[in-house]
Each structure stands twice: as C-alpha cells, then as structure tokens.
Amino acid sequence: MQTSFNEMFQQNSNVKLAGFSALNAQPVDLTQAASSSLHAVVHIRSIQEAKMQTVQQAPDIFDFFFGDGTGQQRQVQTQPRVGFGSGVIISKDGYIVTNNHVIDGADEISVKLNDNREFKGRVIGTDPSTDLALVKIEGDDFPTIPVGDSDALKVGEWVLAVGNPFNLNSTVTAGIVSAKARSLGVYNNGIESFIQTDAAINQGNSGGALVNASGELVGINSVLSSPTGAYAGYGFAIPTSIMTKVIADLKQFGTVQRAVLGVRGTSIGSNLMDDQRPIDRSGKTLADKAKELDVVEGVWVSEIVEGGSAAGADIQVDDVIVGLDNRKVSNMADLQEAIAKHRPGDKVKVKVIRDKKEKSVEVTLKNEQGNTKIVKEAGMDILGAAFKELSADLKKELNLGYGLQVTGVSNGKMADAGIRKGFIILKANDQPMRKVSDLEEVMKAAVKSPNQVLFLTGMFPSGRRGYFAVDLTQE
C-alpha cells in the first residue's frame, strides 16, 4: 500500500524541511537610509596638469656602433588627466573621506555636493596602505552620514552603495553583505580586510559610502572585482573599523600612527591544506605543516621580526594566532584589521594555540621602526634647504630634462648629509624630481619607511655627479 506525501508528513511531524522552517521575514525599507545618505556623498574631480617628461630615444645605427649606444633624450609634454570618484562628508565643517587612488597625484581637487554647490578640496593626509585619504572643503553646516560599527555588520545584512559611478551623480544600489575580512592582494604590503557586497560598485563609486539599513556609514567603497572593469557581481569596501582610526590619525598628526605585530605568517584554511610549497630543506610543505598544527583556522606564525612587537613578548614561531583582545582571528585579514585599530604603545592580548593548548600573551605594539614614538608628518623644513625647479636655460645648458636645484642650505638634514648650495637633484629614492612637490611626496613616504632614508642622485653645475643619503630620523 502506497503512502501519500501528506500522510507521511503528518505521521512524521518532527521532520523539518527547508521550505517549512523558513522565517517569516518582513521586507526591508531602504528608502530612508538612501535619502539620508545622498546629500553627504560628494562627487570628486581630480586634475593632473600637463607636465614635461624626458624620454629616451632609441639610438640610430651610427650612434649604436660609434657613440655610447644609449640614444638621445628628448622632452615630451604629457596630456592633462582628469579623474572622477566619490567621497563622504563625515563632519559638518567639511572633512571628507575618499580613496587615496581617487586623489593620488592630483594638482587640483574639485568637490561637488548633491545640491550642485562646488568647492575646492585640500588634501589633509593620505594613507596608501589602506587606500584612504582625508580631504577638506571650507564651510560649515555640511550634511553628514553618522559613522556606524562595521564589526557589528552581519553576513546577509542589507547595505546600500552610494556614489557617482560613470559620472552619474547620486546613484544608489542595494545588495547584501556577502562576506567580511576579505583579502584580495590588490595593495602591495597594504592592509586588506574588505567587506564584500553584491551591491553594484562601478568606476566612479570609489570613495563613496557603504551604508546599512539604518543609514549609518559602515564602509568606504574601494574595489570592484571584474575582468572587464565594470560591475560583475561583487564589490569591496574598507570597513569603518579601519577608517575611523586612520582618519583620526590623519586629522591629528597628518600621517597614520601604524602599529605592527612584528610577525610573518600565513592564514590557515583549505588553501593551506592543499599547498605543496616547501617550507624547509627537508621537503616539508605548507600542507604538511597545516596537518601538523591540527588547527582549522587562524594565522600560523612562520617568522618573528627582529626588534618588533612580538619579539619582545612570548609569541613564538609555529604559534597559531586565533584571537586579539575580544576579537576572533580566522585569517590574516582579520589580524590586520584588529591591529589597524591600535597605535604604537597600545597593549593587546593575543590568543595563540601552542602545542595544541590555548595561551594568552600580552604584547606592547610598536611601529615599523621598532619603537612607540609618535610619528609626525615631516615638513620640508627638517631638510634645512630651499629648492627651485631648473630654468629652461639651465636645462638646455646641462642637457637635462628635469631637476631641482638646491638654492640654499642651513642647519638641517641636507647639511648633515654634506649637500651644498647649487647641487641639482635628479632623483630621490629612484623617483624623478620635476617640481618641489615631488620631493615633498617622496620625503613623506621615506619618513614612514623602516629605514627613513632619502637617497639622492644628481649633479653639480660643473657636471660632477653626486650621490647622498639623507637621514630623516627625528629625535
């Protein structure tokens, strides 16, 4: 005798099927969140002026055999470049968060509000490691978005991406949080712990707002993942847990006070379980190490950086980091995001698995230089020198395409390095010097680097070459 489905279901009332256990969810109204966010998201236009650039011509056949074989240099003028992006007003007095790549290299920044008012933007500070920048416009009583807690954001929660894709002002798209603590490898040695969303993010959305259903800012739209350069299913945003601390540092110090744990390691997960790369001369692979550790998630510590934070604490090679303070650490992106909230000098509790036992270790965080000092934005005044761009006549006389001439030296880093008036700087840390702002930009990056040295290549008006190393460390 056959039993119908209804009879079987009634007889086995304890059986739960997917369709019958679904929650009676109410539709989410996002209109209020959209309308309250639109006015605080701005359109940013960055302009790079035309510049003279020196290029190397291929040598002709006579020069190849009888000359120096290098060809001749000639100057070409680059075309002006205009870029577009978005930004988010976070204070009534006109502080705006955007992506570093939106304003990087800009000679002029124009900010247009949703009500079509236009302002000149001034860069307060940038942080390429997180792709964040802080811009200021003059005025007061600007509309803002309240900053929410990205840590409280849940996978599956509704979010809105607000920005100006393809120059289409005030565009809102909706989606859900698809994943958190995503690392894509798009920033060289940068900090990546993205919120992944299927809300459409396209070119021009960069720097715009990712807001939750309550209209709170939970991320800064940054990256789209697509083989075509247009939306193809997923976009990525920098969480406010990282943004809040970075922006506070840029506003107060002009540069980020970055703490580092001082370990090198690898995320443990399915990828590591299958990784056949050798880790020592015995032929042991990463997959072998993963099996040996017998931990399903966390960060395996493969090396302790000498002089770093971990070196002064009881963290050891082969420890697996699984938590920091009250935060669970599942992978390297989790660890980076947790550390990014802190400044050098902060004490944190690091939870590790060692010999299959859990252990809590207190660590005092240091910066990349291995200390806890506040790093201030270095002004050009620490060099103790004045500079000017080479005149057209001097360029022609010395057959140079670019350069900065030292017009005066007083007490400072330049004098300490032995540099004297008249020296022409051609390159600083391998970057060509065409204008004074080029030197300032390279110097600021050098101050944040571990060695804090400015390597200068150039020549004296006599034609003699000169090479100098300028120590930028500050007491």
TrEMBL record:
Q: Where is the PDZ domain?
A: 283-356
What SUPFAM superfamilies does UniProt report for this protein, alphabetically?
PDZ domain-like, Trypsin-like serine proteases
Gene3D superfamilies annotated for this entry? 2.30.42.10, 2.40.10.120
Cellular component terms per the entry's GO annotation: periplasmic space
Q: Where are the transmembrane segments?
A: none
Q: Please list the reactions this protein catalyses.
A: Acts on substrates that are at least partially unfolded. The cleavage site P1 residue is normally between a pair of hydrophobic residues, such as Val-|-Val
Domain S1 motif: where? 293-366
User: What's the protein called, per UniProt?
Assistant: Probable periplasmic serine endoprotease DegP-like
What species is given as this protein's source? Answer: gut metagenome
Lineage runs: unclassified sequences, metagenomes, organismal metagenomes
